[in-house]
Amino acid sequence: MKDSPGFISDISIRGTLLGVTLRSPVSKGQLKSISCPRLPNAYTLIRAEDIPGKNELVDHPVPVLAKDELSYFGQPVAILVGPDEARLEEYASQCQVEAEKELPALSFNAAEEDRILAKREILIGEPGKAFSEAASVVTGAYRTGIQEHWYSEPVGAIAVYSPEAMLIHTATQWPYHVRNSVSQVLGIDSEKVLVEPGCTGIPLDGKLWYPSLIACHAALGSWITKKPVTLILTREDDFRYSPKRNGAEIHISTALDAQGHLLGTDIQVMADMGAQGIFIDEILDRICLGSLGSYKHQNIKIQGFALKTNVPPQGPFAGFGLSQGFFAMERHGSRIADILGQDPAEWRKNNSVSRQKSLAIGAAVKDPIHIEALLDTTATMSDYHRKWASYELLRIRRRGEEGDPRETFRGIGIACAYQGSGFLYSGSDKGAYSVEITLDKDGALEIKTSMVPSNGEDFDIWRNIAAENLSVETASVRVVCASPGIAPDSGPDTLSRNSTILTKLVEKACQDIRKQRFRDPLPITVQRSYRPSRVLNWENKTFDAQALSQLSCAAAVVEVEIDPLEYTPKIRGAWIGVDAGKILSETRARRSLKFSAIQALGWASREHLAYEDGQIPLQSIYDYDIPSPKDIPPIQIDFIWNDKSPKGIEELPFSCIPAAYAQAVSQAIDHPFEKIPLTARDIWEAGKLKKQETPV
């Protein structure tokens, strides 16, 4: 047990072997053979046929080691373990992986039947009639790129075999998934697998499921050799083969009346899920839902496709797809306003869902959605209306005359979004998660959880809640992050569950103890559990509507300035207004929002990354352009304060800042950008094109 996990690379175990991964040399094909030099007794090559249990992770169709079919370049096919790092690398370089190459599928802009992992066909109302009666129709295609998590330590695991149990050290957001996957792969009871979680840093969902795969590799090495095995990816291998935020392409057509109100909406979603379907239903439905934005849609048609491509499995990044969907609809809303000659903020207010009682997916919304108030708050903070009108006049003026070559271009954009908390769909664990609290005879309180926080502030909030409810000193409250099997399954650290679902369980458990403490003898132990609701969604599939019943909302404004010679964008400022219910820690909330805003600006403006022939070039790790401290603009945050239940906020900046940034650059350059990341080169090429169009 421990309450402050450290890095995996800091753990040293006497007599440990090291592990390296042999990988597929092709993006698609059939594995023919794996040959290696004659190995000394201390070195062992482990193939798929050596796996004693099932060759697959729990709840995800991911082979631990490829046996026949090869689905992406770099897919693990074997593990080589041995005591000396230099000799291990030498032997690994002499191994030959022979494969029969096949034609890979590397694009995701066509829904070919044999590549569809999941699809949605949603029809609400009469969209065909709406389009036939519309005063105007606006159409756009929007694309979001992949994004690297760039966490503080590459993914790794240490496995320590004993006849009684297999001990796993790994930095994971989901210890129980590691435990269950390792037990399935080794073919042993899950109670014989112990997991000691390490420090995840701020993983942005990059350590949600992938550590389970690496833990299985290390566990196989330890199980077969009966010795400890350490397998930690190099930064280069982690960068090239680990999951990324999945890319998406979204086509939206909207039917409008004469005032610009939405009459009908036709959406097609293409989501690149990579070689294996990880959280496909969760991600696809969230992209589809996000592509409706925060707006009133009377008649809807949605076609959604989660597509298989021959690149590494793609997945979540600080959320499961809402951000991709919101980018598309928020950019589309700004395009509508631009075509109609309206202020984008006013168009949003006229079409917002502030008084809507349910979302299109079928989830009832308990609290009002304060989109209009947030738009007003953020507009006031940033002086949006004055700036937008001024920059719009300058943009229109430049269309008809050659401007001053020294004049900088400025633009400002606005966008809004919402988020829920927790999964829509659950796996074999049924989505039932718990915390356990014990009040001892000496008055000390212990909160036991398997959840691994990205920082200690979640635990500080729990201590304060316990102290307030039970009238004890915070110093007497201990939060223990315990191994699976010792602590109850608290579920993964994702989708703002810690600050919403688990915090509520802690509060309820403390209230139960308060009722019992003067009736029952100490110690008193209470376990509180979350049970998902079972509601039918827009395709009559069961989902947990509680995940979307209490929505946090945000509006964001971004202002940019662009150099007229080099077309280099400079972000002058970002402003965010948030309704997150009861704020348990303002300091933590502001820090979390600012961090997410910086990452969102990076995704929108500079973090260009792409697969080339199914691979991420090695040079990309050195060229990957994450924001540095000098690149961070002033970021102002304000809250709509209320005493409603705490709500998640971490995803909000990712869902509204990129569209606000793209709109700001579009206004500055007078060119409708419809993709992110939107790099300096993209702006330069559009700017040069505009110069050629300017009359002499």
Automatic annotation (TrEMBL):
Keywords: Molybdenum, Oxidoreductase. It holds the Pfam family MoCoBD_1. InterPro entries: Ald_Oxase/Xan_DH_a/b (IPR000674), Ald_Oxase/Xan_DH_a/b_sf (IPR036856), Ald_Oxase/xanthine_DH-like (IPR016208), AldOxase/xan_DH_MoCoBD1 (IPR008274), AldOxase/xan_DH_MoCoBD2 (IPR046867), AldOxase/xan_DH_Mopterin-bd_sf (IPR037165). One of its GO terms (molecular function) is iron ion binding. Coiled coil: none annotated. The keyword Hydrolase does not apply. Residues 5-104 form the Aldehyde oxidase/xanthine dehydrogenase a/b hammerhead domain. Gene3D superfamilies: Aldehyde oxidase/xanthine dehydrogenase, a/b hammerhead, Aldehyde oxidase/xanthine dehydrogenase, molybdopterin binding domain. PANTHER family: ALDEHYDE OXIDASE 1-RELATED, XANTHINE DEHYDROGENASE. This is Putative aldehyde oxidase and xanthine dehydrogenase family protein. It comes from Treponema primitia (strain ATCC BAA-887 / DSM 12427 / ZAS-2).
